[in-house]
Design a protein that fits this description.
Layout lengths: L2 E9 L14 E7 L9 E3 L5 E5 L4 E5 L5 E5 L5 E6 L5 E5 L4 E5 L5 E4 L10 E7 L6 E6 L4 E6 L2 E6 L12 E6 L5 E5 L4 E5 L5 E6 L9 E6 L5 E5 L4 E5 L6 E5 L12 E6 L4 E6 L4 E7 L2 E4 L7 E3 L3 E7 L7 E6 L2 E2 L7 E4 L8 E9 L2 E4 L3 E6 L3 E4 L4 E4 L4 E4 L1 E3 L4 E6 L2 E2 L7 E4 L8 E9 L2 E4 L3 E6 L5 E8 L5 E7 L5 E6 L6 E6 L4 E7 L9 E6 L2
Parallel strand pairs: 1-28, 27-34, 36-44
Antiparallel strand pairs: 1-26, 2-25, 3-4, 4-5, 5-6, 7-8, 8-9, 9-10, 11-12, 12-13, 13-14, 15-16, 16-17, 17-18, 19-20, 20-21, 21-22, 23-24, 24-25, 28-31, 29-30, 29-32, 32-33, 32-34, 35-38, 37-41, 39-40, 39-42, 42-43, 42-44, 45-46, 46-49, 47-48, 47-50
């Protein structure tokens, strides 16, 4: 019996004492890579869904909390910076149009910041301060060397201009808003971070590297302990600083192309479960790191679909000190008696599919997991196979398959190649020609698996274009002569009958072609004699 497990992992590590700027304990958790080409920026909503911008593809790819791709939006003009506010509104910067559009949670456009298209030279990063005026939005306009500030879509302020002095920028990039209202701006070409108050007044700055050429800093954010994180695209790592002093604390990740390593990281985000998301453009992945105390949700199989009859197991793995109590839920209702760390359902049926979640309680609080969708399907099975056929050119051919299983789909193939549009249970071929001869199969599939039919061979026979008795004469010597015209490459039979009911073959022609003379020496033995020329396939 095949066993399929869906597991939700719960890991905890004690946080450092409040007020300390200790190095974060970072644990690599895996990454998202499906459909990604060169991920640039990432934002997280309240349900821990990750929104990843793909500038070259003009798309935003969305993953759920379990790492499964759940949405993809295209048609954008170089999507770059992205942020999501507490109401679920999506702020998306498009470099090619120089704009930031605000969408609702269902991707319905609401308005654009400022004048709309052309408002920015390069809207690079976006940060939102939720504690002011219902949400204050900061946008780094990197090529204009400005940080612009918006409330309700209206430009209310902007920070400085180009230069190397305090409060001046050379390609401002990542932005972060501290809980006390301070705005941290990554000043990329000056290799420093500058700090401003909410009004835009310059406060201080600190270096981002030990040397002036340490790297090309991009995204930035604050974690729950107040530490400041900066993505260094050149060195392929994430730098961590003490927000108050600017002192270097540690780094997260390392340069490389292997899973868990970073190459040109340019986007950072932190979800409510304390998981760090790093968009790594040149490895085509978004890497996940747990910071200090965190929760990590994981699903196997990744598509959440299992064949009927398999064993379903959902479990919570725990780490750290303290006791844990679980309650499993399905379809929004608690499952009676399902209070262990593992929920096992043997020999699943279609009715065992549904929406599962778990509530875990411990001494440090209660955690309610995101919902994971489980689909249990009857795998497809072919009951009746398509049959081989031999037909004349111009005939209409029907091939069919009978299959069972949950919502099967069909794809017919000829000689192993998909037939365009042939996606029904029945394959109909009208007025077939010789080129359609071949081996036909059909693939029957659903999300639980697929099965290929037996081969059905189609032979299209092309009849001769010429086959006729041109003339018939009785010679003076009473011998009957027939003149035949035969198409080369075929076999023929010349038949004779005295009553048009009973026929006998009097001569076979195999390799003969063109005009042929045939003498019937038996003709004088019959009072009446009929002839026919017949093609023998």
């Amino acid at each position: 019996m095949k066993r399929t497990c869906i597991a939700l992992y719960l890991l905890t590590i004690a946080l450092s004492a409040v007020g300390q700027s200790a190095a974060p304990v970072a644990t690599w958790l895996g990454g998202y890579s499906k459909s990604l080409q060169a991920p640039a920026r990432v934002a997280i909503d309240a349900q821990a869904r990750a929104y990843v911008t793909e500038p070259s593809a003009g798309e935003v790819v969305v993953f759920d909390a379990f790492g499964r791709k759940v949405d993809g939006r295209g048609g954008f003009a170089g999507p770059l910076g992205i942020a999501i506010d507490q109401q679920g509104s999506i702020y998306l910067a498009e470099e090619a149009s120089g704009s930031v559009t605000v969408f609702d949670a269902d991707w319905n456009p609401r308005y654009k910041l400022g004048v709309g298209d052309g408002e920015f030279l390069m809207p690079n990063h976006i940060a939102i301060d939720p504690d002011v005026d219902g949400g204050r939005v900061y946008v780094s306009d990197s090529r204009a060397n400005l940080v612009k500030v918006y409330v309700g879509g209206v430009l209310t302020n902007q920070f400085s201009g180009s230069g190397q002095g305090g409060g001046e920028f050379s390609f401002p990039a990542g932005l972060g808003v501290r809980t006390n209202g301070e705005v941290f701006v990554v000043d990329q070409n000056n290799d420093r971070c500058q700090v401003f108050d909410r009004a835009g007044a310059f406060s201080r700055s600190f270096k981002l590297g030990a040397t002036a050429t340490s790297g090309r800093a991009q995204a930035a954010f604050f974690d729950k302990a107040g530490r400041f994180y900066v993505a260094d695209t050149f060195q392929g790592l994430v730098k961590v600083f003490d927000a108050a002093t600017g002192a270097s604390v540690s780094t997260v990740g390392s340069f490389g192309s292997l899973p868990g390593q970073l190459a040109s990281p340019g986007g950072l985000a932190l979800d409510a479960a304390n998981r760090l998301f790093v968009a790594s453009a040149n490895t085509r992945r978004v890497e996940l790191f747990g910071l200090d105390s965190f929760f990590h949700l994981h699903v196997e199989p990744s598509d959440g679909v299992i064949p009927a009859g398999g064993d379903l197991t959902l479990s919570v793995a725990s780490g750290g000190a303290g006791d844990f109590a679980c309650q499993w839920w399905k379809g929004g209702l608690p499952i009676s008696g399902a209070t262990n760390m593992t929920l096992a359902i043997p020999s699943t049926g279609v009715g065992d599919g549904g929406l599962y979640s778990v509530v875990v309680a411990s001494s440090w609080g209660t955690f309610t997991s995101s919902i994971t969708r489980v689909v249990v399907m009857d795998a497809p099975r072919i009951v009746s196979q398509p049959e081989s056929q031999t037909v004349l050119r111009g005939a209409n051919v029907v091939m069919a398959v009978v299959a069972d299983g949950t919502s099967p789909s069909y794809q017919w193939r000829k000689n192993g190649n998909n037939i365009s549009g042939a996606i029904n249970r029945v394959l109909e071929l009208a007025d077939v020609q010789g080129i359609q001869s071949g081996s036909y199969t059909v693939v029957v599939s659903n999300e639980a698996g697929s099965v290929v039919s037996e081969v059905a061979n189609l032979s299209v026979v092309i009849p001769p274009s010429v086959m006729e008795i041109v003339s018939s004469t009785m010679a003076t010597n009473q011998i009957f002569h027939l003149t035949l015209n035969l198409d080369p490459g075929y076999a023929y039979s010349l038949d004779a009958s005295s009553d048009l009911q009973q026929w006998e073959s009097i001569r076979d022609f195999a390799q003969d072609a063109g005009l042929l003379e045939f003498v019937d020496f038996e003709a004088t033995n019959h009072a009446i004699r009929f002839y026919r020329l017949r093609w023998v396939p």
